[in-house]
Amino acid sequence: MKFCSDCGATVGLNIPEGDNRPRYICTRCDMIHYQNPKIVAGCIPVYDNRILLCKRAIEPRYGYWTLPAGFMENGESCEEGAARETEEEACAQVENLRLYTLFSLPHIDQVHLFYLADMTTEHFAPGSESLMTQLLPEAEIPWDELAFPTIGRTLRYYFADRQAGHFPVRSEALLRPVRAN
Ligand code: ZN
Questions:
Q1: Residues 53 and 9 in one domain
Q2: For residues 9 and 18, what is the distance between their CA atoms, to the nearest angstrom?
Q3: Per the domain annotation, does 78 fall within a domain?
Q4: What is the domain-level CATH number for residue 137?
């Protein structure tokens, strides 16, 4: 960042007293601007053994397939964010959200988390950020056209765990860019 969001003066990068890493500090009002990871919350919406995927109508990864997910808004819970994104991107209602995968992505300062979720009805449709939405069985998942690594990993865990009959929470760190599928 270049300017203080509080007073508009320039900021400098310095280690505050008592801290151990550089922070942006306002040269006029001394406000310390902490920067922390952003959280992306999404769902694995399930209906009748099929998974709801969205074809992205926005960059990055325009035209690639994703689970409905997006940046959390202030004032909402992770579950609310995941359900909201599912409604916005796929016009689908979900219930019974269970935390399933959690990814730390330190190279892009993000955390991604996905909830297993039951669709309340078979209704879905593309929202404004989607070109197309589809309920797909495992055999029709477009593995080579997935938008992000956390989507591919979540789907692979899901189909393996479904075979095994239980869905333990999966938590892992992706320490550098990896393949999307
Ligand atoms: Zn300032």
A1: no
A2: 24
A3: yes
A4: 3.90.79.10
Residue 107 alpha carbon to ligand 1 centre in Å: 28
Model confidence at 128: pLDDT above 90: yes
Residue 140 CA to residue 5 CA, distance in Å, equals 47
Residue 181 has pLDDT above 70, yes or no: no
Task: Report whether the peptide linkage leading into residue 149 is cis, meaning its omega lies within 30 degrees of zero.
Answer: no
pLDDT of residue 97: 98
Residues 138 and 60 in one domain: yes
What percent of the chain is predicted at pLDDT more than 70?
98
- If asked whether residues 135 and 51 sit together in one domain, one would say yes
- What does pTM read for this prediction? 0.92
Interstrand relation of 38-47 and 110-119 (parallel, antiparallel or unpaired) = parallel
Structure tokens at 73: 């808004």
One domain, residues 115 and 30 = no
Q: Which domain holds residue 9?
A: 1-35
Ligand 1 is an ion; its neighbours by CB within 5 Å are 4, 6-7, 9, 26, 28-29, 31
Number of domains in the chain: 2
Q: Please give the distance, rounded to the nearest whole angstrom, from the Cα atom of residue 40 to the centre of ligand 1.
A: 29
- Tell how far the Cα of 22 is from the centroid of ligand 1, in angstroms: 17
Helix H or strand E segment including 79: helix 78-90
